[in-house]
Specification:
The protein is mostly helical. It contains 4 helices and no strands. The radius of gyration is 18 Å and the shape is elongated.
Length: 124
Amino acid sequence: MPAERRARHVPRPLSQRATRPFDSAEEAWFWFQRARLNRAEGARLAADPLATARPCDPDDIVRAVRRLAHANVLERRHLRVLDRHGRRLTPPDARLPEEKADAALWDEALDRLTMPLRTKGIVA
């Protein structure tokens, strides 16, 4: 009797095209939020052949945020601001009195997120 072959797990590449990192953590965050909103609406995340190939999956960004939150680098208030303005797909406007505090937290959160994303090659 022939021996059974074991199936090997080979990770599938994210893209066959050259990838381009995001210019900033903010750009990566909004890309993640758009992907999250599309998933919530039931869209399948098939790659758009005309879109720029990215060096990560949206889940890579959320994992980086979770690691920072677990290490208390990002606090609840940072996460609330990232979520609130991420869902709106627009950063807080520091010129508006009601968004001034959010703008400061937004900048802090993205500043803290930049290095982990840069280390992974997600942000240039």
